[in-house]
């Protein structure tokens, strides 16, 4: 969510919807039931929660490791016209 005036983690749902110019009532009508169903499924299914948590953690470790950060950083150096030393 780039381009917002403040970090999204510090915003209320209403503030975020307003900044993105999304009609709150339409967003609620369209997505709230699906969100509730998904949340209920997670609350009711411990094995699913554990599996998704484990998979999410593995993805973060793989995709956001120090090694992957430096590889991505090195790819950006030519764009920034900075020499590798």
Commentary on this structure:
- This protein is mostly helical and 85 residues long.
- The protein has one domain.
- Helix content is 67%, strand content 0%.
- It is built from 4 helices and no strands.
Structural class: mainly alpha
Q: Give the radius of gyration.
A: 19 Å
Shape: flat
Count of all domains:
1
Distance between the termini: 34 Å
Task: Give the SSE map.
Elements (H helix, E strand, L loop, with lengths): L12 H7 L4 H21 L1 H18 L2 H11 L9
Supply the key terms.
single chain; 85 residues; mainly alpha
Summarize the structure.
It contains four helices and no strands. It is mostly helical and 85 residues long.
